[in-house]
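DM between two lab members

TW: hey, do you still have the Cyclin entry open?
JB: yeah, one sec
JB: this one, 231 aa:
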Amino acid sequence: MAEEEEEELAGAPRVVGVLSALLERVVERNDAAADELAAGAASASAATSPAPASAFRATARPDISVRSYMARIARFAGCSPACYVVAYVYLDRLLRRGRRGRGALAVDSYSVHRLLITAVLAAVKFMDDVRYNNAYFARVGGISLPEMNYLEVDFLFAVGFDLNVSPETFGHYCTVLQAEMLSLELGKTPPPTTMTTPAAAGPRLHSCCLSEDDGATSSSASGSSQQQLAA
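TW: and the structure you got?
JB:
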């Protein structure tokens, strides 16, 4: 299965594989943390707290892996490599705003696919002059058009319609993804790129958030990162 997924990503920009690996790691941690919370509640004979209601949470775990799903999007969406970086920025903003009052939404097996297709759709509309419509993205994502439309609207409100990404922020995220890429190529454990929800009881659920205020990179460094991720 791993070899097949790597073949699927062979023709995609490197940023697709890097973002897939990062999100897979986040999903694995969130799933494990949720299972631990559920087990703890069961052992204490207490009712498990339900996950926050969200349009992005599926009722069952999709059969397709994150890596294969990203490869499918890369194959059919035809968007620029920069869109995947911007989509990552949007996911960050959505999750950080959720911790500030909209209700925490973990990136797990139930939500990651819908979050991905919607974030990429939003990024494509903001970044690319030539793009496919919502009906096409719905088919790519394996959902209905009404659901795609609803997810898009919910996503826009969730990020507060904050879609602009400054060159400094874009460069910062490119640098983070480049570090992830280099770690994967060297076979090392990638550096931590997760934060935790502050109010979680017991084991905390991880999100894929970074901070846009962690610092800006130099233009030369960010340009080098962009070139490597787009290759």
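TW: got it. Residues 2-230 form a domain with the Cyclin A; domain 1 fold (CATH 1.10.472.10). The chain is about 60% helix and 0% strand.
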